[in-house]
Write a structure and sequence with these properties.
The protein is mainly alpha-helical. About 70% of the residues lie in helices and about 0% in strands. It has helices at about 5-30, 35-50, 60-90, 100-105, 110-130, 135-150, 160-180, 180-185, 190-205, 225-240, 250-255, 255-265, 265-275, 285-310.
């Protein structure tokens, strides 16, 4: 598939925001920038982009999509979670429990985001196939998934993050809907609309200060507000992205974001430990945090480059 520059750029931005969040948590010890401000929006942006790429002008090929999910998501999930399982525990100085490691991997708990994306894409592919792309039936099906997700209590038996996947389907649909009717959305590619969406989003974020809107293990207190947040966020991104100058390194990050994501926990943890041992703990010094963030991005990029250069098969590229 031919690369789409603005898609890779968006993925790169979202991935960097995830690195920012993890660096704050590991290095500072807490997220100074509240989670709801940008982290959830970065996560749902990945799902939106995946949904955008679902749309095909010709007949949707279910089997081809399933093969793509297995190759580009499921295989990397197993390979990376197996490779990083023990090193992650050693760095954290935790006891190695082989049975627990196997259980975490096989039940999809070793990487909640990727697991939710895999199941969400499988479910959305099935809905597309069964509804034959008829937007009314597809909309009803997706809305049903959101209602089920919102009404059922979050349980311990959330194998392969199937509950989060029900919500993921909603964001995949938003991306699919935008691509299908993108000509209609071109009318909002104007500075005035962008400013309006930005103002609305700021108002929503101010109101969300006392609302619980995490992306994982969601306990949404206000579903309409949550949906308003992500919809306005998507509209804002759509209205401005093609006018933002693209930076090559960020596009490259977006192209290889699957590997970055698996490194998004380990690299910040390693850099944070090194900084603290060197006597450069955060202690309120912004410049130290910026150095830590730069080092996290540099380390993540270096490892990602090495993987794609010498062992690309572990990303599913050679299957």
């Amino acid at each position: 598939m031919e690369r789409i520059g603005w898609i890779d750029f968006l993925r790169g931005i979202a991935m960097i925001l995830i690195l920012v969040f993890h660096t704050e948590v590991y290095y500072k010890g807490y997220d100074i920038t509240p989670y709801y401000i940008y982290t959830t929006n970065a996560i749902v942006l990945f799902y939106f982009i995946s949904g955008y790429l679902f749309y095909q002008s010709n007949t949707f090929q279910w089997k081809k999509r399933i093969v793509s999910i297995i190759r580009s998501l499921l295989i990397p999930y197993f390979i990376f979670t197996i490779l990083i399982a023990v090193p992650k525990l050693l760095v954290r100085q935790m006891e190695i429990n082989w049975l627990e490691i196997v259980n975490q991997i096989l039940t999809g708990r070793a990487s909640w985001f990727i697991a939710a994306l895999i199941v969400g894409e499988l479910l959305f592919s099935t809905l597309l196939s069964k509804t034959r792309g008829k937007i009314i039936w597809l909309s009803i099906s997706v809305a049903s998934c959101f209602i089920v997700y919102y009404t059922i209590p979050f349980g311990k038996n959330n194998y392969w993050q199937w509950q989060d996947a029900l919500l993921t389907v909603t964001f995949l649909f938003f991306g699919y809907f935008f691509h299908r009717y993108k000509e209609c959305f071109h009318t909002i590619n104007k500075p005035l609309y962008s400013l309006l969406f930005l103002l609305i989003l700021i108002i929503i974020k101010l109101y969300e200060y006392h609302i619980d809107l995490p992306m994982r293990n969601i306990a949404i207190e206000n579903a309409p507000l949550f949906l308003a947040d992500v919809i306005i966020w998507f509209l804002l991104i759509i209205s401005v992205i093609k006018y933002v100058p693209h930076i090559r390194i960020i596009e490259w990050t977006g192209q290889h974001c699957i590997v970055y994501y698996f490194l998004a926990g380990g690299c910040p943890l390693i850099i944070s430990m090194l900084m603290n041992k060197a006597g450069l703990s955060y202690d309120g010094h912004l410049w130290r945090y910026l150095i830590a963030l730069f080092m996290v991005y540099a380390l993540s990029t270096s490892i990602t480059w090495l993987i794609f250069k010498y062992i690309p098969f572990i990303t599913g590229k050679s299957f």
